[in-house]
């Protein structure tokens, strides 16, 4: 375990704690969200023989405390319950935790330790091994890369035990086997499950807000938060007026839609604009903090990184965000091409299992870079269980029946008597974050990379980067920066690879033969599905559908049976 919180002060500016016992060191940089006054870490059991450092939130800590009547708690921290649960139940308590977390726990009675990561990998965690036999565990790669002979991503839903010297999976839900579920769709069950997921994440002792792009996912999070905020402890401390935040290029789709939803919900809305050059100037910092060279993650992380800095400057320390919905419900536009419900479901399973390498990585590190915490209700354990038990036939896109992507979620919140959102927002077509902030953002990145990576460099790419060889100049440009910060081979192995179209897995490319010639993670790569635009005129495509277009550069809403599209 690391003897110092090297390079990680940005994650927790409120407190630095360190504990030393023999050959063991536990260090912690605290971002104080719950019990800021007394919850400094490390945390202990009654006689201080159990020591724990935690990154995250345990939403059911009050319920768990009631199950430990013979234990005396020192603080109001939600994370202290981990030390007492271990004392009571040993290593088998982790599945009792409802939250997002990465932790290391030292048992000084026998000098053993365990480490664990939450079910989906919302919080980041890495594990490394030194030549001297040491084991190192840290929230970020940069704390390990200079000291470990080998290091790797600590897999989500796993526990490491020093007694066994190995990892084992503690999270084993039914959906993980990818067996096809058959539970009929019940919109009210789904609605209640998601409302519960949002409400439990309003546990905070500091100012907070919601990220609001105006898309379905963030808008639902904001709507539910606005409905329930007045009844929370947070409202009594900080007021019942919800703050919302959006980022984009001037005139971007997200800024327009975000403001419309904010006006509808009555939030105090904060718009942050950036230029393409602002984003380009931040790329090196983004790659250093996000610790990836994956193209789509960097594209989306940069606006979020810039926005997080502004949010933190306003005194806000926690935000709710909409990550995870597209994986759970098949919301990415390429799901339109799923050949059957079995393939649809298996792809959602693959996407959820990989979230820790993509959107969770982005949401956690882009915010943590500025001492801001992101909470993601769509990745609530119980909500995932409910959503992933639905017969996937209900999730399939069916234009004849009026079902667009994520129809089951939209329908669950389509309440005529007490609307959660305006209809056109509730049924707005999916925009990937890197697209929604403004289409010229991605185009600007490609132009910038083209100026720094030559054709000759691309010809040698397989020799320079034999692992996950970059196939575009943009990917090559990001890879050069990553390798400068993290030149070790284990570092490059932590980043996923493989072909992708519109954020698909490599397996899903088999759904449409034409996609192999159009491999780009942007949602606009789903040709024939995403109908926003490169050209300044209508351009029919071979199958007779309307092709990508912009009319006089003015966004307009038109309707096609079963789909809402922007032209």
Key features of this structure:
single chain, 567 residues, alpha+beta, six-stranded antiparallel sheet, five-stranded parallel sheet
At a glance:
The chain is of the alpha+beta class and 567 residues long. The protein has helices spanning 61-66, 81-89, 187-200, 216-228, 233-238, 253-265, 276-290, 295-313, 325-329, 341-353, 359-368, 381-387, 407-412, 423-426, 433-436, 439-452, 455-459, 461-464, 473-485, 489-493, and strands at residues 15-21, 24-30, 43-44, 50-58, 99-107, 112-117, 126-129, 135-138, 150-153, 158-161, 166-169, 208-211, 243-248, 268-273, 318-320, 373-375, 557-560, 563-566.
Overview of the structural elements:
- This protein has helices spanning 61-66, 81-89, 187-200, 216-228, 233-238, 253-265, 276-290, 295-313, 325-329, 341-353, 359-368, 381-387, 407-412, 423-426, 433-436, 439-452, 455-459, 461-464, 473-485, 489-493, and strands at residues 15-21, 24-30, 43-44, 50-58, 99-107, 112-117, 126-129, 135-138, 150-153, 158-161, 166-169, 208-211, 243-248, 268-273, 318-320, 373-375, 557-560, 563-566.
- It contains 20 helices and 18 strands.
- It is an alpha+beta fold and 567 residues long.
- The strands form five sheets. A six-stranded antiparallel sheet has the order 3-4-5-6-10-11.
- It is globular.
- α6 (253-265) links the parallel β13 and β14.
- The N and C termini lie far apart (54 Å).
- α4 (216-228) runs parallel beside α6.
């Amino acid at each position: 375990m690391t003897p110092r919180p090297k390079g990680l002060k940005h994650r927790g500016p409120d407190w630095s704690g360190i504990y030393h016992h023999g050959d063991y060191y536990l260090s912690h940089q605290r971002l104080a969200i719950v019990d800021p006054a007394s919850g400094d870490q490390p945390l202990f059991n009654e006689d201080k023989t159990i020591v724990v450092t935690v990154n995250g939130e345990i939403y059911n800590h009050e319920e768990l405390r009631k199950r430990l009547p013979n234990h005396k708690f020192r603080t109001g921290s939600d994370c202290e319950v981990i030390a007492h649960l271990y004392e009571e139940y040993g290593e088998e308590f982790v599945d009792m935790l409802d939250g997002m977390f990465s932790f290391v726990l030292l048992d000084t009675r026998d000098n053993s330790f365990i480490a664990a990561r939450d079910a989906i990998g919302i919080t980041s965690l890495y594990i490394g091994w030194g030549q001297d036999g040491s084991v190192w565990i840290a929230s970020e790669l940069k704390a390990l890369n200079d000291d470990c002979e080998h290091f790797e991503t600590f897999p989500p839903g796993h526990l490491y035990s020093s007694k066994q010297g190995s990892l084992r999976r503690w999270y084993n839900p039914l959906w993980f086997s990818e067996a096809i579920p058959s539970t009929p769709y019940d919109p009210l069950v789904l609605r209640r499950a998601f409302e519960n997921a949002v409400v439990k994440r309003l546990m905070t002792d500091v100012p907070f807000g919601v990220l609001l792009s105006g898309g379905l996912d963030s808008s639902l999070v904001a709507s539910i938060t606005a409905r329930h905020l007045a009844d929370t402890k947070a409202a009594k401390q900080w007021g019942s007026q919800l703050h919302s935040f959006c980022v984009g290029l001037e005139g971007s789709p997200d800024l327009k839609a975000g403001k419309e939803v904010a006006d509808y919900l009555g939030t105090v809305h904060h718009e942050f604009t950036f230029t393409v050059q602002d984003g380009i100037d931040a790329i090196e910092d983004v790659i250093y903090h996000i610790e990836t060279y994956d193209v789509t993650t960097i594209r989306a992380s940069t606006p979020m990184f810039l926005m997080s800095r502004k949010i933190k400057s306003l005194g806000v320390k926690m935000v709710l965000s909409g990550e995870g919905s597209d994986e759970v419900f098949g919301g990415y536009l390429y799901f339109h091409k799923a050949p059957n419900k079995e393939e649809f479901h298996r792809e959602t399973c693959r996407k959820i299992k990989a979230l820790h390498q993509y959107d969770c990585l982005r949401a956690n590190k882009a915010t943590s870079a500025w001492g801001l915490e992101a909470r993601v209700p769509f990745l609530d354990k119980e909500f995932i269980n409910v959503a992933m038990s639905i017969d996937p036939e209900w999730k399939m896109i069916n234009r004849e029946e009026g079902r667009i992507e994520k129809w089951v979620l939209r329908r669950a919140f389509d309440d005529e008597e007490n609307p959660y959102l305006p209809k056109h927002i509730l049924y707005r077509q999916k925009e990937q974050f890197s697209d929604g902030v403004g289409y010229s953002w991605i185009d600007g990145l490609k132009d910038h990379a083209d100026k720094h990576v030559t054709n000759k460099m691309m010809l040698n790419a397989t020799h320079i980067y034999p692992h996950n060889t970059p196939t575009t100049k943009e990917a090559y440009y990001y890879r050069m920066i990553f390798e400068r910060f993290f030149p070790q081979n284990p570092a490059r192995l932590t980043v996923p690879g493989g072909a992708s179209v519109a954020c698909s897995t490599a397996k899903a490319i088999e759904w449409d033969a034409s996609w192999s010639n159009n491999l780009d993670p942007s949602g606009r790569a789903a040709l024939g599905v995403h109908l926003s635009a490169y050209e300044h005129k209508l351009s029919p495509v071979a199958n007779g559908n309307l092709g990508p277009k912009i009319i006089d550069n003015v966004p307009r809403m038109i309707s096609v049976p079963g789909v809402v599209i922007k032209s």
